[in-house]
Design a protein that fits this description.
Elements lengths: L4 H16 L7 H8 L3 H13 L3 E4 L5 E4 L8 H7 L27 H17 L2 H7 L4
Antiparallel strand pairs: 1-2
């Protein structure tokens, strides 16, 4: 299964933001410190999150980021997609005419990995940002 640090960090940062939104805008420096994520990397991630309307920014001395909509409406799949991530367990292309490994047929375990892939995508579609905050009240 492939989920790079970009996808993991985006979910971590959004969970941190959701946990601290009650105090107002949250700076990336604060998230960086609490989650031990490079500030420069967070800046890249938040550009994409903002572009995909998951967060909004406010300027000024007390500026930072806020969620664009309630955490209960933000799916983990939306966060992962926003940072150009794709969670895949299949090495082959699902609907490729060449089949797996550039052969004319699918590999013997193709359907197994395809089913696992569907479960993973279903999980990320079902879990909301609010679920993470509730599970980890000490974020």
């Amino acid at each position: 299964m492939k989920l790079t640090s970009k996808g993991r960090y985006a979910v971590m940062a959004m969970a941190d933001l959701a946990s601290n939104t009650s105090v107002g805008p949250v700076s990336l420096t604060e998230i960086s410190f609490r989650q031990n994520i490079s500030l420069a990397y967070l800046e890249q991630i938040f550009i994409k999150l903002k572009k995909n309307k998951l967060v909004k920014s406010s300027r000024g001395a007390t500026g930072g980021y806020l969620l664009e909509k309630p955490a209960s409406e933000i799916k983990l799949s939306s966060i992962i997609f926003a940072v150009d991530e794709e969670v895949r367990v299949l090495n082959c292309k699902k609907n490729s005419k060449k089949g797996c490994n550039n052969k004319s047929t699918k590999c013997i375990t193709h359907n197994l990995w395809d089913e696992l892939d569907q479960h993973i995508h279903g999980f990320f579609e079902k879990v909301k940002l609010q679920d993470l905050v509730k599970q980890n009240p000490n974020l």
